[in-house]
Amino acid sequence: MREIDARGLACPAPVLQTKAAIEEANPNVIKVIIDNEASRQNVCRFLESRNYETSVQEEGSDFHVTGKRKEGVSPEVSIDEKTRTDVKRIMVMLATDRMGFGDDELGLKLMISYIRTLKEMGSELWRLVFVNNGVKLTIKGSEVLPVLQAYEKDGLHIMVCGTCLTHFDLLDEKQVGETTNMLDIVTAMQLADKVINI
Amino acid sequence: MEFPTDPNLIVGMDSMDDAGVYKITDDIAIIQTVDFFTPIVDDPYWFGQIAAANALSDVYAMGGIPKTAMNIVAFPIKEMDISILRKIIQGGLDKMKEADVVLVGGHSVEDKELKYGLSVTGFVHPDRILTKKNLTIGDRLILTKPLGTGIVNTAIKGGLASREVIKFVTHLMAALNRDAAQIMEGFSVHACTDITGFGLIGHVAEMVVGSDFGIGLWSEKIPIIPEAFDYAAMGLVPAGAYKNREFRECMVDISPSVKQAVLDILYDPQTSGGLLICVDTKSADDLLIRLKNKGMDAAIIGEVLSKPKRRIVIK
């Protein structure tokens, strides 16, 4: 059993010590002594997030938190694994409702096909941003509207330029995505690992 | 304690509002407020900006326009390089410039722990002061910044926050509430406050205490910094959030579907949080669109209820 005395320490120090102990020794049982209510709840929460069963004993003004690893759970499974963001983030920005120049009819066909096929990017597809004429793909009557709505339902973040909708007087016609602004678009570009401009 | 009274004192010590208001003429009242704290981010320039935005926010929350400010500085001059202080003050000054506020002076003391903030004076028309009172049943509540800065700041302290999150939350805390205040001027707003140390629930509680109504909050609509959920589940909840909960949970009814991590975030103390605007139900959607078009992650998050009186109902 591993024992940590984190008395006299304020949040988040007790949680950090507990985290370090688990990462270093991966114990089946761990005991953490703390002396304040906030740390008690935080340490319990942390241990539970790492698949430990917790119990608390009060001793004077101290709390003794004991964590026992739940059976049948692989020690490797941790919240870090689940929330790690090593999936590549691809942002696709569509500034037009046609793909390429030349024949408009062909351009529209290509665009529809492009949006339908985008799902092949899988979980790496992170943001879909519509600006300028692109916003017309998000309104009533757009051929790809059901596709976009399905993407959004699956959790894809779709952003539609508010200035552009206002310019075309389409603010009320938009049927999918979140109305956004240039700051959000610039921030998304900065956070993305790859930006694709169409 | 008994405080001196004055017929021209409109908002004073006896109310739970963000700043004091004193009437000078029938058209002008001054708003006074002060706020300072220890660093919450490592970058001194950004800390200066955040501390200034936070102090100015109280004036915006009362419907006023900040005009002058004074620096308040506590600095460990023997242990710390003076260039750090310069950067902090530069950050504060740049934020004041952005807000069209003039720096008129200040005061510094030597202290073991670094602290910075402002004392701010602003103006407001006495008839247009916004407090935490005067809510009407059916009013909608709009929040103009996402919640979770206290939890994210705890993760930053613990060295567990990613650079992207640090950057995002730093910009969020440094953002002035000026745009929100200017936009709401054109709407029938009944009350307003800014979300700071008491967390969303603490500030909502101040609105219903002593009133004749309750407030319903729609937890799924409340804008939240996404990473705050993971950090809360990991136990990176600041002690202040537990204190806020202990103090206010007797006033709160929670639907079983509301997740623990969400509740932590609703009690989470905010630094330089957004405005909580209480607006006539008919104007709420229009006001929200205007705020969003200005780039704010705002949302309608609840409503004023006829009952249960003096309680907060979270769905």
Q: Count of helices of chain A?
A: 7
CATH superfamily of the largest domain in chain A: DsrEFH-like
Number of strands of chain B: 13
Using the 3D structure, state the CATH architecture of the largest domain in chain A. 3-Layer(aba) Sandwich
The dominant shape of chain A is: elongated
What is the arithmetic mean of pLDDT of chain A?
A: 87
Radius of gyration of chain A: 25 Å
Count of helical segments of chain B? 10
Distance between the termini of chain B: 39 Å
From the spread of the alpha carbons, the general shape of chain B counts as: globular
Mind telling me the CATH superfamily name of the largest domain in chain B? PurM-like C-terminal domain
CATH architecture of the largest domain in chain B: Alpha-Beta Complex
Rg of chain B over CA atoms, rounded to whole Å, is: 19 Å
Oligomer: heterodimer
Number of strands of chain A: 9
Do you know the CATH topology of the largest domain in chain A? Hypothetical Protein Ychn, Chain: A
- Kindly report the spatial arrangement of strands forming the biggest sheet of chain B: 8-11-7-12-9-13-10
CATH class division of the largest domain in chain B:
Alpha Beta
Largest interface: A-B, 31 and 27 residues
SSE topology string of chain A: EHEHEEHEHEHEHEHE
Structural class computed from helices and strand pairing of chain A: alpha/beta
